[in-house]
Amino acid sequence: MTQLRAALASTNGLILAGIVLGALFGAFFPELALAQRIIGQMFVALLKMLVVPLVFASIFVAIAGLGTLHHLKNMGLRTIGLYLLTTALSVLLAIVVMNVLGIGEAVSAEGIAFAQAHEIKPFSFEAMLLGFIPTNVFASLTNGAMMQVIVFSILFAIASLYLSDHHQGLMLDFFTGVNNAMLKMAEWVIKLTPLGVFSLIAYVVADEGVDVILGLWKYMLVVIGVILLHGLVTLPSLVAFFARVNPYHYMGQVKEAILLAFSTASSAATLPVSIEVSEHKGGVRRESAGFVLPLGATVSMDGTAAYLVVAVLYIATLAGVELSFGDQVLLGVTVVALSVGVAALPSASLVMMVVILNQIGLPADYIGLIVAVDRVLDMFRTSLNVTSDLMVTKIVDVTTRKEALGEAAQERSA
Asked: Membrane topology for this entry (predicted)?
């Protein structure tokens, strides 16, 4: 993977240049920026092309590499627990910041409409649970239903542990080859990252318009501020506490994935790069990266959770509704719970916002006042989602490695 590391290193400055030049190009040449959208779409499509086979193969190889259900249980419980913790902390931070700053003023709901909110079906716990289970795994693979693909690949990998050593070896060799082939293709796509980033950023700036962005600058600054605080303070603190490593050094090692998440606004599209940089630059074992990151790309939503809390409290202010402490606690609990469950449903963030607004009695049409900058903020919240995935992966890898060394030492002493 020496070539891949060299490719990543050479693109660092070019990615940053692509972001800056793309923003300027979109602002000063909007018609051209809109016309060249196909370049960015092709880049994202190439990344997404790799996701399903990479997720399936990487999870299989990770679980087969762990060898026992005991190690899988420890890693799985630790992963889910950390993802819930980071999401809860992002929600708490958003609530505190919004109560301290208190931005927004009450506005009339007359003439405000957001038709898409009324097209969303009511949230159902039963539908959520059924959404995790693939009734036709080939349809799930075809449609890119990530949660269903993950559930099936985990069960499939566990079943392989009960096969003979001969068959286990054959299957592990096959899926290791598939995994390596997908990562080789990712190496090729990575070389296109600066051009893809330029195209995506230019289109977003031209499509949204600078005037719209400036009109909601206070709201945007609060959302971005919460995201930066969580990404640069809360998450690094967790890594330093649990893993005992320098979190900022690690962030520097995996920054390519964070920058790519910002430009694509897609955790799934960023997944191939996240796996690569965490393994080959961040020093994470393949078993940890292959299991924790695909799961995180589906259920870890720190950025989305923080964004939703700020948006809902901002909408409450616009609607002239003062939420009590109990209401805000309920809001936080709801966001944390839905961040895992709604991931199996399409348009997850919009579904979550509508569900939350309906639950606390706020009109969903107020979404129409903030939806204009949603695409811009989506880039920031996705970059935080991916940052959280990478940080949790590092914690899980370090702690499980220490645990395995401790067990090995006990066995030797016994």
From this structure: Multi-pass membrane protein
pLDDT of residue 249: 95
Q: Which domains are seen in the chain, by residue range?
A: 2-413 (1.10.3860.10)
Specify the length of the chain in residues.
Answer: 414
pLDDT of 233: 96
**Tell me, what DSSP letter sits at residue 319?**
T
- Rounded to whole angstroms, the Cα distance separating 247 from 253 reads 10
Residues ≥6 apart with Cβ < 8 Å to 274: 254, 257, 261, 289, 293, 297, 386, 389, 390
Angle between helices 2-28 and 193-208 (to 10 degrees): 20
Alpha-carbon span 15 to 195, nearest angstrom: 8
How wide is the angle at C-alpha 330 spanned by C-alphas 327 and 334, nearest 5°? Answer: 140
**CA distances in angstroms from 214 to 203, 283, 307, 376, listed in the order given:** 17, 41, 18, 12
- Residue 67, phi-psi category: left (phi > 0), alpha (psi -120 to 50), beta (remainder): left
Contact call for residues 63 and 156 (beta carbons, < 8 A): no
H/E segment holding residue 40 = helix 37-66
**Grouped pLDDT means (10 residues each) for the chain, 414 residues:** 50 80 89 91 89 90 83 88 94 94 70 57 70 86 84 91 89 92 86 88 82 77 95 96 95 91 86 90 91 87 91 89 86 82 56 79 80 83 93 95 74 66
Confidence (pLDDT) at 109: 56
Q: Do residues 219 and 370 make contact, with C-beta atoms less than 8 angstroms apart?
A: yes
Greatest pairwise CA separation for the chain in angstroms: 75
Closest CA to 349 of 304, 286, 387, 412: 304
